[in-house]
Amino acid sequence: MAPVKRKKTPRKSLPQTHRSATPAPPNPVSPSTGLADQLHSAAIHLLRRLRVRDIESGIGPAQLSALSVLVFGGPKSLGELAGAEQVRPPTMSRIVAGLERSGLARRQATEDGRRIRLEATPLGVTLMWEGRQRRVASLAKALDSLPATEQTQLHGAVTLLQRILLNL
After folding, report:
1. What single string gives the DSSP state of each residue in 7-68?
2. Which residues are CB-neighbours of 50 under 8 A, at least 6 positions away?
3. Which of 12, 62, 65, 130 shows a CA-CA span of 20 to 30 A to 90?
4. How far is CA 164 from the centre of its chain?
5. What is the spatial distance between Cα 119 and Cα 107, in angstroms, rounded to a whole number?
6. Under a CB-based contact definition with an 8 Å cutoff, are residues 95 and 66 in contact?
């Protein structure tokens, strides 16, 4: 018996976003949109690479982020801290409880006694500054590999980034 020949059916072409695991980026609307996309990606990758140094702190990213707000932004109410971290107050309560157990943050009553303020303890401040020094040292080491002219260009770019931050 001869093999049965099947009709070949044409394959339907899938849209670009379904062909691979990584969808193609949208076409930039303007040159500034393309630049914004590149800057966004570079900033995220930079922070992820530096965040590896945070493991040495011994606390998780959520607690470290909340502690950072208290150390570099000053004492906050639970609601203010939750707002700064873009989480709900019950979530922040759990994060703060962990910081308190570790001796990194404490609750302080306000003068009227109706509210509490959360503040970093001296141990929390030390932990944050040591973490910042580790991240800065890692970044400085990478910057040292650049020629002086590129370091100067980067200095100018940082100045521009600081101006951009004022408009966000």
Report:
1. PPPPPPPPPHHHHSSSPPPPPPSSHHHHHHHHHHHHHHHHHHHHHGGGGGGSS-HHHHHHHH
2. 135, 138, 139
3. 130
4. 17
5. 7
6. yes
Burial class (CB in 10 A: 0-12, 13-18, 19+), 53: middle
Distance CA 73, CA 118 (A): 11
| Tens-place pLDDT, residues 101-127 | 999 999 998 787 778 899 999 999 999
Kindly indicate whether the domain formed by 59-141 is annotated with CATH number 2.40.50.320. no
**CA atoms 24, 39, 132, 78: torsion sign:** negative
Tokens coding 136: 């800065």
Sequence ranges of the domains in the chain: 59-141
